[in-house]
Amino acid sequence: MFRIGLGHDTHRLGPGDGLVIGGVRIPHDRSAIGHSDADVLLHAITDALLGAAAMGDIGEMFPDTDPANKGRDSADMLHRAWAKVTVAGLRIVNLDCVVFAQRPKILPHRAAIRRRIAEILRIEEETVWLKAKTGEGVGPIGEELAVAAECVVLIERGT
Ligand code: CDP
Ligand code: ZN
Q: How far is it, in rounded angstroms, from Cα 59 to Cα 119?
């Protein structure tokens, strides 16, 4: 049995000194704003995984009204979602992700990001792919008001 999941996330950009994308800190002249560490890619992956398993979404699991979630490490949230899915006997087949950001360049960090995601999800790096897109200078992405990410994940019931 195969199941597909889709995740999407957006964070506003503001003054700052860097972004955390896929668990990797990338120096930049702006930062993503959010209740947690605002890691748009790990949030999209968490939602994709929960969606594939029909197990809710990141906001249900970690409400931003709960002070315990303030500044929570997104890797911890993804790991907890992974644990929930794994306990249910489901296994990740592959992930494909897109980060939407006018700047900074993501590709130089792709290897590190894939490695970190694979580590959090206890899978091989080959199982994770990552692409990046600018906003072509238009809209909230292009005008550097926001960053976004999308992810699809395929899971199967373990043998
Ligand atoms: O060329 P195309 O319009 O399809 O894409 P683009 O958004 O102009 O991005 C050009 C190249 O830069 C692609 O190879 C992206 O993977 C890369 N890129 C990146 O590394 N970091 C970003 N924040 C945006 C794009
Ligand atoms: Zn988010």
A: 23
H or E element in which residue 74 lies: helix 74-87
In tens, the pLDDT along 109-138 reads 999 999 999 999 999 999 999 999 999 999
Ligand lying nearest the CA atom of residue 58: 2
Name all residues whose Cβ lies below 6 A of ligand 1: 101, 105-107, 131-134
Domain that holds residue 107: 2-157
- CATH (domain of 137): 3.30.1330.50
The predicted-structure confidence for 84-112, as pLDDT tens digits, reads as follows 999 999 999 999 999 999 999 999 999 99
Number of independent structural domains in the chain = 1
Q: Are 104 and 26 in contact (CB under 8 A)?
A: yes
Residue nearest to atom 11 of ligand 1 (CA): 133
pTM of the model: 0.96
- 66 Cα: distance to centroid of ligand 2 (angstroms): 15
